[in-house]
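Write out this protein's structure.
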Amino acid sequence: MSIYTSDYHDIIVSIRKFKSDPIVLATRNEGKVRELQQLLTGTGFAVVSLACHPNVPEVVEDGDTFEANAVKKAREVAVAVGRITLADDSGLVVDYLDGAPGVHSARFAGQEHDDTANNLKLLQLLDGVPRQKRTARFCCVVALATPDGQVATTQGTCEGVIIETPRGENGFGYDPLFLVPEYNRTFAELDSSTKNAISHRGRALQKVKAILAAAAQG
């Protein structure tokens, strides 16, 4: 239970007030939208992205933690659109880099740079570092907010290793560099169903699905 969460009972009651409307995903990242929509299948709730609300401004992610950023996005968008909103903040935590890129994962190579640039910077910083010292984890915090101010957060992590050369065509972000030892494949080499079952975001969303399932029963 997060410090931002009163309790799950309160948000379940609040969700029931707004459940006739679609849940809004507080992101315009197409890869993330696609993954979240897959993960939320079967909840009984329709899901739309911020593309359906083009006038909602980008939320400045200036928090020091994944949780702070996720909660800020969920709260601000929920108020702006008047609907249940789901936001996540996630990133890559590399032990050798003292936790970087962390909350700066999406902007690691600079505000205007893309996944390719971020991956290249990561590889440059780890150049010559042996595999056993390239341990890392993906971390995700999901925040679910309602327009009347209720917020719940859930968390998920996935352990892995940063490899030396990108592999795979699926996924987005750092997926081509993140090797899951149990599968000996990167996130980008896994099919979507396998990735969703073990990923940081998938694990956090399973808890959200339980909240939504309870709300749908009321």
